[in-house]
């Protein structure tokens, strides 16, 4: 067995985390590892342990207080409980559900992929950051995003111009006037924008994950931990879309746009990833910079009272379940966690774009960087990724060793 630490201080060649992450060096058996900092920094085994230990927490839809809240609400339902946009019954719910599981009654079970959970402090750290393009490919990726952004802004009637302070001080706020002048988006237009944005955003992770999956099969070689991170990103983006779908009534025009955009974008991104995965990840990083900018704008509008229709809108149930939000959360809390997710995609994709796409392993395969880092930095350089991976490897192995020694001690005492 080789040493725990990678041979070189500046290599991401897959000899460390991916090859033996959960194997205790003392007994060569896998252990459940207590992974430390960051609410997203959680191993697959730890995740499944939490879901087994806390089935009620994992299945919010079946909790009595939610049922009670549904009964007490005006129309008898929490927003989103009508199953539109929800994931439907989960096989693990069958142990707890008393209702007919085939009836598709609202129930969202434990999430089988990682679902992000944030603290309020973590959500406050998210910032708009921009990476300056360096190579020709970087410039092409950023340039394409800028062109797409302009077209998208035109289509959705969006203007990034901030509302002057003197206007914000007026009482009442001249909301209708600002909207009629095109200086302010209405809640309908924000939703239209979110749905178009998220329907596109769910594509790259799935395309990247699929292509790397096929490459692994084709070459009979391990992937280095990229596939799951990319699939989790796709799942996360799809949850954004499903969440907004619970409060939107997309018209046939919106649906047609989504269909057309998906058809074009899927194929264009597929070809880009096939020929230059680095450029594809850079493109996603730049796209996510814009997503953080857009959601920040929306949050500021909501905080300034410029979208009064959304002030009292409760968080959809699917969002409460997925992000483990408090039951009394509002729509603004949902948009804040969505923005934090976009900052993560920004960070991860820019970091992945800096790696050797064929040789390096994914430094975030088991442990992500903490939320503050993801919220404030555009990404890691290759050297930073290597250092981060080695640091996490040492932490994991130390925790495993410690747990093993405690187990041995307990056996001796008995
Ligand atoms: Fe998103
Ligand atoms: Fe995103």
TrEMBL record:
Its EC number is 1.-.-.-. It is found in: Mitochondrion inner membrane. Its cofactor is Fe cation. InterPro entries: AOX (IPR002680), AOX_sf (IPR038659). The keyword Transferase does not apply. Pfam families: AOX. GO terms for biological process: alternative respiration. GO terms for cellular component: mitochondrial inner membrane; respiratory chain complex. It comes from the Eukaryota. Binds 2 iron ions per subunit. Keywords: Electron transport, Iron, Membrane, Metal-binding, Mitochondrion, Mitochondrion inner membrane, Oxidoreductase, Respiratory chain, Transit peptide, Transmembrane, Transmembrane helix, Transport. Catalyzes cyanide-resistant oxygen consumption. May increase respiration when the cytochrome respiratory pathway is restricted, or in response to low temperatures. This is Alternative oxidase.
């Amino acid at each position: 067995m080789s040493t725990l630490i990678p041979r070189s201080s500046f290599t991401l060649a897959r000899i460390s985390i991916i090859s033996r992450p959960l194997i205790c060096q003392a007994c060569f058996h896998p252990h459940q590892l207590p992974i430390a900092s960051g609410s997203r920094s959680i191993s697959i085994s730890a995740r499944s342990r939490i879901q087994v230990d806390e089935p009620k927490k994992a299945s919010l839809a079946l909790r009595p207080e939610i049922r009670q809240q549904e009964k007490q609400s005006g129309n008898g339902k929490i927003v989103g409980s009508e199953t539109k946009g929800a994931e439907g019954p989960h096989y693990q719910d069958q142990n707890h559900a008393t209702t007919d599981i085939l009836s598709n009654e609202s129930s969202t079970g434990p999430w089988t992929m990682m679902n992000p959970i944030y603290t309020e402090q973590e959500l406050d750290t998210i910032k708009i950051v921009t990476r300056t393009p360096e190579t020709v490919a970087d410039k092409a990726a950023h340039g394409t995003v800028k062109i797409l952004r302009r077209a998208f802004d035109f289509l959705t009637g969006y203007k990034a111009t901030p509302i002057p302070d003197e206007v914000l001080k007026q009482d009442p706020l001249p909301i209708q006037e600002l909207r009629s002048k095109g200086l302010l988006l209405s809640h309908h237009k924000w939703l239209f924008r979110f749905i178009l944005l998220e329907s596109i955003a769910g594509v790259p992770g799935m395309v990247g994950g699929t292509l790397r999956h096929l490459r692994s099969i084709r070459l009979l070689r391990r992937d280095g931990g990229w596939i799951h991170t990319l699939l989790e990103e796709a799942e996360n983006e799809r949850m954004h879309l499903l969440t907004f779908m619970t409060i939107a009534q997309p018209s046939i025009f919106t649906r047609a746009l989504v269909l057309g955009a998906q058809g074009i974008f899927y194929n264009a991104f597929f070809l880009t990833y096939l020929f230059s995965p680095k450029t594809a990840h850079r493109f996603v990083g730049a796209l996510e910079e814009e997503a953080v900018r857009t959601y920040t704008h929306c949050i500021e509008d909501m905080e300034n009272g410029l979208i009064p229709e959304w002030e009292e809108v409760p968080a959809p149930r699917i969002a409460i379940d997925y992000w483990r939000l408090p039951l009394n959360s509002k729509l603004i809390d949902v948009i804040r966690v969505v923005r934090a997710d976009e900052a993560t995609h920004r960070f991860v994709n820019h970091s992945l774009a800096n790696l050797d796409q064929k040789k390096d392993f994914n430094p975030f395969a088991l442990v992500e960087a903490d939320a503050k880092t993801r919220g404030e930095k555009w990404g890691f350089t290759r050297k930073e990724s290597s250092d981060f991976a080695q640091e996490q490897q040492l932490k994991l192995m130390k925790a495993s060793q410690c747990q093993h020694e405690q187990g041995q001690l307990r056996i001796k005492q008995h």
